[in-house]
Design goal:
Layout lengths: L7 E4 L13 E4 L13 H10 L6 H17 L5 H12 L6 H7 L9 H8 L10
Antiparallel strand pairs: 1-2
Helix pairs in contact: 2-3
């Protein structure tokens, strides 16, 4: 479950002119997850990625859309194994494997799984079974 206490803000000002948001920032918890899941939109995902030194391409959006669909269906973000299984079922075995996901969402400063990274970029809570 996402924290309800704001630890820091994500600045949306470089992209806020392209979004319908009134506020130029969204609240994040200490691990970088959104405080209010309703704040998410593609521009927020781009800002989160930019803040982590990432750039989102079509391949990333495929996975983000799959994870958001998983959350809509099960009301939880998938941990690594369910993520791989869901991606395999949707996009096939060439993209539904942990090596592909690790290349697509490599860890940066902190050791974390692609499931945690994609959940954060998708505006979802941290997967419950991820360390």
């Amino acid at each position: 479950m996402a924290s309800t206490q704001i630890y820091r803000y994500l600045d949306l000002s470089p992209i806020s002119k392209k979004t319908e948001k009134v506020d130029d920032r969204v609240g994040l918890d200490p691990e970088g997850y959104l405080i209010d899941l309703d704040d998410w939109n593609p521009q927020v995902a781009k800002a989160l990625a930019r803040a982590e030194g990432r750039e989102l391409h079509e391949e990333h959006w495929e996975i983000i859309d799959i994870v958001r669909g998983f959350y809509k269906r099960f009301e939880t973000a998938p941990a690594m194994r369910p993520l791989v299984k869901t991606v395999t079922g949707t996009l096939g075995p060439e993209k539904g494997n942990s090596l592909y996901l690790m290349r697509l969402f490599p860890e940066k400063d902190v050791q974390e799984s692609p499931a945690r990274i994609v959940a954060r970029l998708a505006g979802l809570p941290k997967p419950t079974n991820c360390l």
